[in-house]
Automatic annotation (TrEMBL):
Keyword Nucleotide-binding: yes
Keyword annotations from UniProtKB, A to Z: Nucleotide-binding
Family matches, as InterPro entries: P-loop_NTPase, Small_GTP-bd, Small_GTPase
Species lineage: Eukaryota, Sar, Alveolata, Ciliophora, Intramacronucleata
A molecular function GO annotation: GTP binding
Residue spans crossing the bilayer: none
Keyword Nucleotide-binding: yes
Protein name as it appears in the record: Small guanosine triphosphatase family (GTPase)-like Ras family protein
NCBIfam families for this protein: small_GTP
UniProt xrefs under Gene3D superfamilies: P-loop containing nucleotide triphosphate hydrolases (3.40.50.300)
Native organism: Tetrahymena thermophila (strain SB210)
Length: 196
């Protein structure tokens, strides 16, 4: 049986220095670079995983966090299937900015975009400024999934992409059900007597 192949455009959003590039570096190469360069504009990478006999090709867009790049960022998420919005658990401001990103996604992204909130830098939990219940409320309010990570230690990074894979599978099975329901309805619609 041939493995199904799915391409998933995934965009990483969030403030500068929250660890977007570090999370991707950990996911793709299983490495952590203390001196990783800040992203300018956007950076593109590809990584595949296998999930439930499906090959998922993640087309990963790492966007710059600086405010001056925000108008450009819209180009990357308007047709994305997944948005990962990253904050730094030791920086309350980076968490407050999530409200801006959710508003942007509501206005410009696909209606059924999968939203993941990533609370990064769990290795610095003793400096934590964002409490877990606040992050959970933010996720619930915005119909998003919350994952806590440490790009430095590698904690939670694979989990982010496993959760995306689960969501993609669920969304695909819903689409199949809708198509089947439409097929069932169509013959009934055709039986309507024509007037005149």
């Amino acid at each position: 049986m041939q493995m199904q192949q799915i391409q998933v455009k995934t965009v990483f959003l969030g403030d500068a220095n929250v660890g977007k590039s570090s999370i991707l570096c950990r996911f793709i190469d299983d490495q952590f670079d203390e001196n990783i360069q800040a992203t300018s504009g956007a950076d593109f990478k590809v990584k595949s995983i296998t999930y439930n006999n499906k090959k998922i090709d993640f087309h990963l867009w790492d966007t710059a966090g600086q405010e001056r790049f925000r108008s450009l960022t819209q180009l990357y998420y308007k047709d994305a299937s997944v948005a990962c919005i990253v904050y730094d658990i030791t920086n309350r401001n980076s968490f407050e900015v999530l409200n801006y990103w959710f508003k942007e996604l509501k206005q410009h992204a696909k209606e059924n975009i999968i939203k993941i909130i990533i609370g990064n830098k769990m290795d610095l939990s003793q400096q934590q400024q964002v409490q877990l219940d606040k992050a959970q409320t933010m996720a619930k309010t915005n119909d998003a999934i919350l994952v806590l990570t440490s790009a430095r230690e590698g904690t939670g990074v694979q989990e982010v992409f496993q959760k995306i894979a689960v969501q993609i599978e669920q969304s695909q099975s819903e689409q199949i059900k809708q198509k089947q329901a439409t097929k069932i309805m169509k013959p009934q619609e055709q039986k309507k007597p024509s007037c005149c």
